[in-house]
């Protein structure tokens, strides 16, 4: 099987990156998502700092979009708040660059949709990622078969292209998804939108085992993770736990005063994950 050689060239060559260093051998990594510009571009920096202070290992920064088809109501509402506050692509890259200055060791992943990423050209977007210190990109709505519309430009600049696997990803499809993937594999544990339900633990365990048999990339599990108990259960079998909607809801509730509440919630998740394999 050639997948492993293709999926993680930088890690496979022994070149340590911020991403590869963020998946410890003895515990799962906590991957935390927030929407850029929510509640305003000026407030996002403090919220990102709170994620790191709470113990997040990897940050996913969502690019607000008018038609976020994979996202549930919480992230849709966050996108609306962000866009209403006037958030532009330039603001997102400024937020990312300032985060990188403050947190040189914490990986930053941009997550979003094709239109904002490609409207100025894939090379422009890849260059902007490099300039802002972005480590990886997740583009929800570019299928693997159209990877060259964005992925080639990102890989040319050593920006990881993170792919999504779902409960419907079968053995025949998996090698195609893994081809030219890097960073980590994001397992979407439910067939649906973000934040609405959580998969049964047994199904997650089976899926993680199947995916890890097919790739050397770390496997992170997300969609529907809300409580420290849920995070700990996933952390016992997966390489990473992704939490998004629950954090975004805190921002929606507290607005400009979100940072301490986000920090405390993320710390509860981090503590549970760190104790999960003890």
Structure notes:
This protein is an alpha/beta fold and 278 residues long. It has a single domain (28-275), classed as TIM Barrel. The protein has helices at residues 3-7, 9-12, 18-21, 41-54, 73-84, 89-102, 114-118, 122-132, 151-156, 174-178, 201-212, 228-235, 245-254, 259-275; strands at residues 29-35, 58-62, 108-112, 136-139, 160-161, 163-165, 185-188, 219-222, 240-243. Strands 5-4-3-2-1-9-8-7-6 form a nine-stranded parallel beta sheet. Strand 8, helix 12 (228-235) and strand 9 (240-243) form a beta-alpha-beta unit. Helix 4 runs parallel beside helix 6 (89-102) and helix 5 packs across helix 13. The longest helix is centred in the C-terminal third of the chain and has 17 residues, at 259-275. It is globular, with a radius of gyration of 17 Å.
Q: Helicity level, as a percent range?
A: 40-55%
Poorly predicted tracts of residues? 1-16, 192-196
Tell me the β content.
Answer: 5-15%
How many structural domains can be distinguished in the coordinates?
Answer: 1
**Order of neighbouring strands in the sheet with most strands:** 5-4-3-2-1-9-8-7-6
Biggest sheet layout: 9 strands, parallel
Straight-line distance between termini = 34 Å
- Counting DSSP H or I runs of 4 or more residues, the number of helices is 14
Order of helices and strands: HHHEHEHHEHHEHEEHEHEHEHH
CATH topology: TIM Barrel
Helix and strand arrangement:
Elements: H1 3-7, H2 9-12, H3 18-21, E1 29-35, H4 41-54, E2 58-62, H5 73-84, H6 89-102, E3 108-112, H7 114-118, H8 122-132, E4 136-139, H9 151-156, E5 160-161, E6 163-165, H10 174-178, E7 185-188, H11 201-212, E8 219-222, H12 228-235, E9 240-243, H13 245-254, H14 259-275
Parallel strand pairs: 1-2, 1-9, 2-3, 3-4, 4-5, 6-7, 7-8, 8-9
């Amino acid at each position: 099987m050639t997948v492993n050689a293709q999926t993680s060239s930088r890690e496979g060559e022994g070149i340590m990156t911020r991403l590869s260093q963020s998946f410890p051998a003895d515990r799962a990594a906590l991957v935390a998502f927030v929407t850029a510009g929510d509640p305003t571009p000026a407030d996002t920096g403090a919220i990102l700092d709170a994620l790191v202070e709470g113990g997040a290992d990897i940050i996913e920064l969502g690019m607000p979009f008018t038609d976020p088809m994979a996202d549930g109501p919480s992230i849709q509402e966050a996108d609306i708040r962000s866009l209403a506050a006037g958030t532009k692509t330039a603001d997102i890259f400024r937020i990312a660059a300032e985060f990188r200055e403050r947190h040189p060791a914490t990986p930053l992943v941009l997550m979003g949709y094709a239109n904002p990423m490609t409207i100025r050209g894939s090379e422009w977007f890849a260059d902007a990622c490099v300039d802002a210190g972005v480590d990886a990109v997740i583009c929800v709505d570019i299928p693997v078969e159209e990877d060259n519309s964005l992925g080639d430009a990102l890989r040319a600049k050593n920006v990881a292209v993170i792919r999504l696997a779902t409960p419907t990803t079968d053995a025949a499809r998996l090698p195609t998804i893994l081809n030219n993937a890097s960073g980590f594999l994001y397992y979407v544990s439910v067939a649906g939108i973000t934040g609405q339900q959580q998969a049964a633990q047994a199904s997650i365990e089976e899926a993680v085992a199947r995916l890890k048999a097919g790739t050397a990339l770390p496997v992170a599990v997300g969609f529907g993770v809300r409580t420290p108990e849920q995070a700990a259960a996933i952390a016992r079998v997966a390489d990473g736990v992704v939490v998004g909607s629950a954090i975004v809801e805190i921002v929606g509730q507290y607005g400009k005063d979100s940072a301490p509440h986000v920090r405390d919630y993320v710390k509860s998740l981090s503590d549970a994950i760190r104790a999960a394999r003890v």
